[in-house]
Amino acid sequence: MQAEPNTRTTDQTDSHLSFESRYASSPNEVKGMTTDQLRQNFLIEKLFVPDQFSWTLTFFDRYLTGGVMPVSGPLALEAPEQLKATYFLERRELGMINVGGAGRVVADGVTYDLDYKEALYIGQGTQNVQFMSLDANTPAKFYLNSTPAHTNYPTRKVSRAEANKLEMGSPETANNRTINQMLINKVLPTCQLQMGMTELKTGSVWNTMPAHTHDRRMEVYFYFEVPEGQAVCHFMGQPQETRHIWMQNEQAVISPNWSIHAGAGTSNYTFIWGMAGENLDYGDMDFCAISDLK
């Protein structure tokens, strides 16, 4: 039986804010989805619009994925009406990685300058947050992830040098990569949000192989540094019932907790992973043998 078309809802849009919410989907629904339905439910196509916050809320762990590219001047973080909050971080925490030009974030009066591929964690309870670019000709692009939070942890910037680095894979299996664990409990405390960045080396195209699932966490992947004219094929679904979504540069994809999340590109690339759920143990994974995938 074919799944019902388009199980998402589209919400608030104004000059400085775009907000969309999407329902959670079961494995049985996904089995019957067409290519368009898969993309409508899981792909986030456009994250960076000049002078606008672009947010997508998934009902998987109420995870918010967004982007902001300030050009004309500073942009203040405001709570979309759907959050029913006095301010954005009243009951949430926020993580970000800058994937554009040099940028600046001011959180409750404290200034943090973020260069390319630098991260910032902002704790629950922070009331006033502003984003700006240091050069409008090469604007910052702040890739944003936010999750519900139960307590306040200190706001902190994490550079690439401060990340916990893991060297994984090999050239022989085309998955030689560096995992930069940035907003993770080995580096700083968070309620449930974890973020990091995986950089594939020249000649390597596969990420997250062997693939895995983790019942206690969902995930979002954001692909960037995909060369012009190239693409990444993202694989999702249950290990015995996989599906794929072709992705372009600077696009994100939602990965339910029951789904694998892996990709192969027509070139090497970089991606940012964000996770949320009831477990902060990075190694909490149920691996799938490559030869068992279908």
UniProtKB/TrEMBL annotation:
Binds 1 zinc ion per subunit. GO terms for molecular function: 4-deoxy-L-threo-5-hexosulose-uronate ketol-isomerase activity; zinc ion binding. Keywords: Isomerase, Metal-binding, Zinc. Zn(2+) binds at H212, H214, E219, H261. Residues 1-28 are annotated as: Disordered. Its EC number is 5.3.1.17. Its cofactor is Zn(2+). Pfam families: KduI. Transmembrane segments: none annotated. Pathway: Glycan metabolism; pectin degradation; 2-dehydro-3-deoxy-D-gluconate from pectin: step 4/5. It is an enzyme of class 5 (isomerase). Residues 1-10 have a biased composition (Polar residues). One of its GO terms (biological process) is D-glucuronate catabolic process. It catalyses: 5-dehydro-4-deoxy-D-glucuronate = 3-deoxy-D-glycero-2,5-hexodiulosonate. NCBIfam families: PRK00924.1 (NF002091). Catalyzes the isomerization of 5-dehydro-4-deoxy-D-glucuronate to 3-deoxy-D-glycero-2,5-hexodiulosonate. HAMAP family: KduI. Belongs to the KduI family. This is 4-deoxy-L-threo-5-hexosulose-uronate ketol-isomerase. It comes from Spirosoma taeanense. The lineage of its organism: Bacteria, Pseudomonadati, Bacteroidota, Cytophagia, Cytophagales. The gene is kduI.
